[in-house]
Design a protein that fits this description.
The chain is an alpha+beta fold. The protein has 3 helices and 4 strands; from the N terminus they run E-H-E-H-H-E-E. A 4-stranded mixed beta sheet has the order 1-4-2-3. Helix 1 packs parallel to helix 3. The protein is globular.
Length: 126
């Protein structure tokens, strides 16, 4: 969880996401899936990060500015070269999903939630 200064803007958000994954290193069993909450209140931001993890892998936020954050963060995370299980490589994250909410002008809350490689989902097969 970060409380950024609004002046840090998009670059600050992307840096916070990448720094969280860098600090986690191999502990979350990469390749990981990253959920990010932006805005809202302190607790709602964390909820948004969890909710972002429920989006289908590879699906981008429909809002272009948020989709750009997802793409920039994913590129930056994979440039860390932590790789599968921390043994190095080009794939540290499978995806980054961001959800957002309006927030007070004086703060910029960002929550980052990391899920391990076995992104579990249920689909009906017909």
């Amino acid at each position: 969880m970060y409380m950024l200064k609004p002046s840090q803007g998009v670059d600050g958000i992307v840096e916070a996401i990448i720094e969280t994954v860098r600090c986690a290193g191999s502990r979350p069993c990469p390749p990981v899936y990253v959920g990010v909450g932006i805005g809202g209140s302190f607790d709602y931001c964390a909820y948004l990060a969890k909710r972002a993890l429920t989006r289908e892998v590879g699906a981008h936020n429909p809002r272009k500015e948020i989709a750009d954050i997802e793409k920039r963060a994913l590129d930056g995370i994979n440039k860390l070269k932590i790789g599968c299980q921390g043994f190095g490589g080009n794939t540290t994250a499978l995806g980054v999903s961001c959800e957002y909410a309006p927030t007070h002008i004086a703060g910029l809350p960002v929550a980052v939630n990391i899920q391990c490689h076995c992104v579990r989902c249920e689909k009906e097969i017909i």
